[in-house]
Amino acid sequence: MVAAASPVKRRNPALIVVAAIGMFLVTIAGLAAYFLWPRGDRLGEMDLRAASPTLAVDLAAGDELNFRLDVTVGTAGGYPNSSSGRSNAVHDELEASKLTVTLSRVDGPGDSTTCGAYDGKATTGSSSSSEVESSGLPLRCTLVAETPGRHTLTARVEWVPEDVREATLEVRRVRSGD
Q1: CB-CB contact of 71 with 161 (8 Å)
Q2: For 2-61, how does the pLDDT look when each residue is reduced to its tens digit (9 = 90+)?
Q3: Residue 120: left if φ>0, alpha if ψ -120 to 50, beta else—which one?
Q4: CA dist 17 to 22, 39, 95, Å?
Q5: How many other CB atoms are found less than 10 A from the CB of residue 159?
Q6: How far apart are the first and last CA of the chain?
Q7: Measured between alpha carbons, how far is 132 from 16 in angstroms, rounded to an integer?
Q8: In the beta sheet, which residues pair with residue 100?
Q9: Is there a contact between 69 and 170 (Cβ–Cβ < 8 Å)?
């Protein structure tokens, strides 16, 4: 007696294409998360439109502070008519703006860092004919606590945009050894 051979199953090429596209999208999402996701624990935020923004932080030696900016800039006059043109012009002005952050202790001098208020990355943004709003702007400024204990963080900004309506600096800590 002759046994009937079972039919050979062929893989559907459409499934292979869908799987490849899925792997590609997962890779892109992972890279975006790596470069845009905030690092460390959120310690607080400072209103950069306040007269003298400060934040008290308790740090260990070697803790690193990173910063993210949420900002809304009015674009009533002197900006391009297109939404992308307005956003690009505002981001150029933010890049030219100088943010200085100082970390100091009561018993010693402080350490400072200065950077632009934009470095080419944003997690979200919107533009209307009257304003550009960007949030989650990771900044290249970092500070490292040299000594443990209570510190005071102060910030100062030299804005290039004329109509900064809102500006909040988020402070995040990466613990030493992480």
Answers
A1: no
A2: 666 666 666 677 777 888 888 888 888 777 666 655 667 889 999 999 999 999 999 999
A3: left
A4: 9, 34, 41
A5: 19
A6: 69
A7: 42
A8: 114, 156
A9: yes
pLDDT value for 12: 73
Ordered DSSP codes for 148-175: -EEEEEEEEEE--SS-EEEEEEEEEEE-
**Amino acid letter, residue 175:** R
Q: 17 CB contacts (<8 Å, ≥6 apart)? A: none
CB-count exposure of residue 120 (10 Å: 0-12, 13-18, 19+): exposed
Q: Who's near 21: CB < 8 A, 6+ residues apart?
A: none
Mean pLDDT over all residues of the chain? 85
For residues 153 and 139, is the Cβ–Cβ distance under 8 A? no
